[in-house]
């Protein structure tokens, strides 16, 4: 059976580009849906046979046009922050244009009954609302939410300080995270994008993902320092408000999301298990289970991305 035509929204991002590449390597014809079709995509080969289409996940008409043009049956999407209806109009546009299966980049913070997640858990709640929409519009077997934990690429927040040889200031340096590579997330998403419902167990609607190691932030930065040949000094913020402003400015998080993330940093620095019983083991194993390769360590990621810190 031949691979379906697929469409990837947000292909300029680390996960989106890796998703597109993995889907193409699996034999799919891949369309790239993006707001600016002239924007370079460093992670995709220039000779790659990708079709670029102008589209925006907050503009349903553009979604329908892109899907119709590409004849895509499967779509990869992410949470569009500008959506006023938790992406319901986007999901409906995808379906009306012929999409049969959706891979959604969600968050491992979404747990249990998606309809029971409360707004005080802002990041999880925001992603859960989109999962609810997909469940309503596509139903079980028509979508999968890929829920990664902490992105290794979040460390790029400190690239400027590392490159300049400055002290790296971060919230709660002893807090431990798993640092999953965007490339690993994209490889899983690309595989699921091509396989569709056949790629997951019957009745499953989500796949949790995590990196292969849980290490302190300080050690992650030190790994980057070794990769670029520098000794990097790491210190914590004296005031959480400074960290909140940093995350809002450089990660583009709304204030509730930034505050929640800083609280999570504080919690894990005090020894709290952010995963819970059995979740980390399942999520880390899923990288190879669904992506076909062992997960990238933070040390490997640092070496592969050292040019971004120089």
UniProtKB/TrEMBL annotation:
Chain segments annotated as transmembrane: none
Q: Which residues form the NmrA-like domain?
A: 5-268
The organism's place on the tree of life at top rank: Eukaryota
One Pfam family per UniProt: NmrA
* Full protein name: NAD(P)H azoreductase
């Amino acid at each position: 059976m031949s691979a379906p035509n697929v469409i990837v929204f947000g292909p300029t991002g680390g996960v989106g580009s890796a998703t597109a590449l993995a889907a193409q390597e699996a034999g799919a014809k891949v369309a790239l849906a993006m707001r600016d079709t002239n924007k370079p995509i460093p992670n995709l080969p220039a000779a790659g046979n990708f079709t670029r289409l102008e589209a925006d996940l907050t503009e349903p008409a553009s979604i329908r046009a892109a899907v119709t043009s590409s004849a895509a049956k499967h779509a990869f999407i992410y949470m569009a922050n500008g959506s006023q209806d938790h992406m319901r109009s986007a999901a409906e546009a995808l379906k009306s244009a012929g999409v049969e299966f959706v891979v959604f980049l969600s968050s491992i913070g979404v747990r249990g009954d998606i309809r029971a997640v409360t707004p005080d858990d802002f990041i999880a709640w925001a992603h859960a609302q989109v999962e609810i929409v997909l469940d309503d519009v596509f139903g079980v077997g028509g979508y999968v939410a890929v829920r990664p934990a902490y992105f290794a690429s979040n460390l790029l927040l400190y690239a400027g300080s590392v490159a300049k040889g400055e002290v790296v200031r971060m919230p709660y340096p002893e807090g431990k995270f798993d640092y999953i590579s965007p490339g690993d997330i994209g490889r899983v998403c690309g595989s699921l994008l091509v396989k569709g419902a056949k790629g997951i167990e019957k009745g499953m609607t989500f796949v949790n993902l995590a990196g292969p190691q849980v290490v302190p932030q300080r050690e992650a930065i030190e790994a980057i320092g070794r990769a670029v040949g520098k000794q990097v000094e790491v210190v914590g913020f004296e005031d959480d408000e400074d960290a909140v402003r940093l995350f809002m400015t450089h990660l583009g998080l709304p204030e509730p999301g930034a505050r929640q993330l800083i609280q999570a940093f504080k919690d894990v620095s005090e020894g709290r298990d952010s995963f819970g019983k059995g979740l980390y083991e399942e999520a880390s194993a899923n990288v190879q289970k669904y992506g076909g390769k062992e997960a990238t360590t933070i040390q490997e990621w640092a070496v592969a991305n050292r040019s971004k810190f120089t």
